[in-house]
């Protein structure tokens, strides 16, 4: 009987101690998901995987592809430099983030190495209550400030699932 109790205690310790680091890792602030939006003749898809590693520092990846019936495809990939979190007008989580463009193909502004600052709002699931916006656009050569900022232009998303874990 004593041996069973000892084994049970060891198993409980492993579960408790083993679960603690992953619980803390899951508590990190992040922006994840894939969303889409568009208008007649034009469609865009965004995939975001942005993890705050320290205040003013983020890691992950971001990709955007757009299709315009007249201009064709535009694709770019980048990585987040930093992310800042806030609260929207209805209490929903919002985030603005600076990204650096790694690769870009197609029409429109932007070059590899330049920076942009975007904004996202998580209105719940599905993404039909979410929104995206532009803080610094078109892309610039100097890195924008990492602090939270509201967008100068925003639009509703019409599909996908975006989650801001604040």
Explain what this protein looks like in three dimensions.
This protein is α+β, with helices and mostly antiparallel strands. The chain has one domain. It is built from one helix and nine strands. It has one helix at 2-26; strands at residues 30-39, 42-54, 57-68, 72-87, 93-105, 115-121, 131-140, 153-156, 159-165. It has a nine-stranded antiparallel β-sheet with strand order 8-7-6-5-4-3-2-1-9, with no helix packed on it. Strand 2 and strand 3 (57-68) form a beta hairpin. The longest helix is centred in the first third of the chain and has 25 residues, at 2-26.
Features:
alpha+beta; 9-stranded antiparallel sheet; disordered N terminus
TL;DR?
With 166 residues, this protein is α+β, with helices and mostly antiparallel strands.
List the SSEs and their pairings.
Layout: H1 2-26, E1 30-39, E2 42-54, E3 57-68, E4 72-87, E5 93-105, E6 115-121, E7 131-140, E8 153-156, E9 159-165
Antiparallel strand pairs: 1-2, 1-9, 2-3, 3-4, 4-5, 5-6, 6-7, 7-8
Strand numbers in spatial order across the main sheet:
8-7-6-5-4-3-2-1-9
Instruction: Tell me, briefly, the overall form.
Output: globular
Determine the N-to-C terminus distance. 46 Å
How many domains in all?
Answer: 1
Tell me the structural class.
alpha+beta
Based on DSSP secondary structure assignment, what is the total number of beta strands? 9
Averaged pLDDT, please? 87
Sequence stretches where pLDDT stays below 50 over 5 or more residues: 3-25
- Rounded to the nearest angstrom, the radius of gyration is 20 Å
* Number of H- or I-type helical stretches: 1
Percent range of helical residues: 10-25%
* Portion in strands: over 45%
What is the string of SSEs from the N terminus onward?
A: HEEEEEEEEE
Q: Strand count, sense and closure of the main sheet?
A: 9 strands, antiparallel
């Amino acid at each position: 009987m004593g041996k069973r109790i000892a084994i049970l205690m060891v198993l409980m310790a492993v579960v408790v101690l083993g679960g603690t680091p992953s619980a803390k890792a899951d508590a990190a602030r992040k922006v994840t998901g894939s969303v889409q939006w568009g208008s007649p003749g034009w469609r865009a898809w965004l995939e975001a995987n942005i993890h705050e590693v320290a205040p003013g520092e983020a890691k992950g990846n971001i990709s955007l592809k757009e299709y315009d019936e007249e201009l064709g495809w535009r694709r770019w990939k980048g990585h987040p430099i930093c992310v800042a979190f806030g609260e929207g007008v209805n209490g929903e989580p919002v985030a603005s983030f600076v990204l650096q463009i790694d690769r870009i193909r197609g029409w429109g502004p932007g070059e590899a190495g330049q920076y942009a600052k975007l904004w996202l709002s998580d209105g719940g699931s599905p993404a039909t209550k979410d929104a995206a916006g532009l803080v610094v656009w078109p892309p610039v050569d100097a890195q924008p400030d990492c602090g939270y900022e509201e967008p100068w232009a925003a639009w509703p998303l019409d599909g996908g699932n975006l989650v801001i874990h604040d």
